[in-house]
Amino acid sequence: MPSNLSSEFPRNTPLAVDYQTSTPCLGRVLQAMEPYWEKNWNNPSNRNTHSGLKAAAAISLARDQLALLLKVKSERIIFTSGATESNNLALLGHARAKAKDNQSPGHLITVSTEHSAVLNPLMQLQREGFRVTQLQPDKDGLIDKEAVARAIKKDTFMISIMMANNEIGVLQPISEIAGLCKDKNIAFHSDAAQAFGYIPFKPDSLGIDFVSLSGHKIYGPKGIGVLVISPTFPIQPLQWGGNQEMGLRPGSLAVPLIIGMAKAAEIMTQELIERNKRLLILRNKLLEQLQMNIPNLIINGSLKKRLVHNLNITIPDVNGIRLHRALKSLISCSSGSACSNGKPSHVLKALGRSKQEAEASIRLSLGRKTSENDIDQISLGIIKTVKNLKN
Ligand SMILES: Cc1ncc(COP(=O)(O)O)c(C=O)c1O
């Protein structure tokens, strides 16, 4: 057991260790957004008013800030409602544009452990006549370049592979796969909702054509995201209306949310190196304490190629439903993706876990303020719960 703790779990409210589901909005983000709710309230499309002009200037600055962080041209930044919409726009938007050019639907490749916000748009494309190959990752959750190369067909026009997994935190070999795409003139999309702000990356240096980002995973507001579009591959809109976002995403822009996302991205990037150093130590300490006290604990996903704030473990020989019910009052964590609707995780199943093992799994994701004392409390809570369930 962690040494310096009383045997009683001291908290009244569950301790959050679920920061991959979402994150709280930072005070500095709220401050940056504040003038755009009431004072500068007008529509940025209305340049005839002072407040509309102010809003337009702020949007332009936010776009430039995000573009600078990603080292892409500002016109490649398209604001959406979140990573779900960005994924839909990239996948459906490019596939439909390509099919129109080629006069026939073609073939796409993805991985079975993607988020449902990628898998479900691809299912829609299958209903529209496109063919989709879902590759299986290895036992560590990783996909290798050779497997991707083998799956490429004559008419493969797009590959979508996430940068960091939302459940097991593993980091895919993005630049290797992007290189493969470049050689064959295939568009490469990556859902980077869990990576942006957590690992430094530049889409162009990695060779990614389309990138999806989300505001609420980086201590920004919910309801805002970005799709970085390609300067070369075509894309068509999913809806029609005004000419906002070059007609790719019509509708009045969500001014405060856009300002908030840019601010959050700036803060997360500024503090990234220091935060990652600290969180790696804490995550490893948490794992060590759990491994010392829970026999045969399984780590899901590669520990080496992984986000530093993620841990996903399976606890053998306990009932998952009872485990999560018992943990509920102590820690707020997750058995899988927040969007899994209580079903055993498709990610853990792809790694070879049985239904029972997948249910007895816990995703722990640390936040930027998670402390050493929190780590002790979290491990103590889990260890005591598992011991009780086993007795
Ligand atoms: C990898 C990944 N993609 C997409 C999404 C959906 O993001 P949003 O809530 O911004 O639509 C999430 C959020 O759970 C995610 O983790």
Plain-language structure description:
The chain is α/β, with parallel strands linked by helices. It folds into two domains: 27-270, Type I PLP-dependent aspartate aminotransferase-like (Major domain) (Aspartate Aminotransferase, domain 2, 3-Layer(aba) Sandwich); 272-390, Aspartate Aminotransferase, domain 1, CATH 3.90.1150. The chain contains 13 helices and twelve strands. The chain has a seven-stranded mixed beta sheet with strand order 2-8-7-6-5-3-4, with helices on both faces. It has a three-stranded antiparallel beta sheet with strand order 9-10-12. Strands 1-11 form a two-stranded parallel ribbon. Strand 5, helix 6 (174-184) and strand 6 form a beta-alpha-beta unit. The protein is globular and about 70 Å long. The chain starts with 14 loop residues before the first strand and ends with a helix. The structure holds pyridoxal-5'-phosphate. Pyridoxal-5'-phosphate binds at residues 82-84, 115, 117, 162, 166, 191, 193-194, 214, 216, 225, 338-339. Pyridoxal-5'-phosphate (PLP) binds next to helix 3.
Topology overview:
Layout: E1 15-16, H1 27-33, H2 50-70, E2 77-80, H3 83-102, E3 107-111, H4 116-127, E4 131-135, H5 145-151, E5 156-160, H6 174-184, E6 187-191, H7 203-206, E7 210-214, E8 225-228, H8 255-270, H9 272-293, E9 298-299, E10 310-314, H10 320-327, E11 331-332, H11 346-350, H12 355-359, E12 361-365, H13 372-390
Parallel strand pairs: 1-11, 3-4, 3-5, 5-6, 6-7
Antiparallel strand pairs: 2-8, 7-8, 9-10, 10-12
Helix pairs in contact: 1-8, 2-8, 3-4, 9-13, 10-13
The chain binds pyridoxal-5'-phosphate.
